[in-house]
Fold:
Amino acid sequence: MKYLISACLAGKKCNYKGEANVVKKLKELYLKGDAILVCPEVLGGLKTPREAAEVLTFQEKLTVKTVSGKDVTEAFIIGAGKALKVAKENKITTAILKARSPSCGCSQIYDGTFSKKIVNRDGITAALLKLNGIKVITEEEIMHKLKKLSDNEE
Structure:
């Protein structure tokens, strides 16, 4: 089984700061050929590095803006669509995405005020993948499960 993984988690320097959020086990999965990497924000045409962005609202009209107020909603929607296309083309059933990201966050993202306040909501790509039957989990959930498994082995 192949996984769809946020590219930054496997070492690609594509997060908004131009850095990676490497998770060794996920990078190993990719290097073994068991994962396909995507960065929805880059797929949507955003540069690296770029301004931090947060989802402002899902009500009435989806809106994603940067910290300076630039509307980047379209790039997020395009990137989510491209990530879904990659997942479908590769028959992906599970995605491991970056926690709290406005694209990839699963169940929790920042609230749009740039105050680090978290709300219970999915990022744009996570929501689209879920709507299309793909299981979405975060790297934090994976690491928690792996830690539990290793603790049980002791």
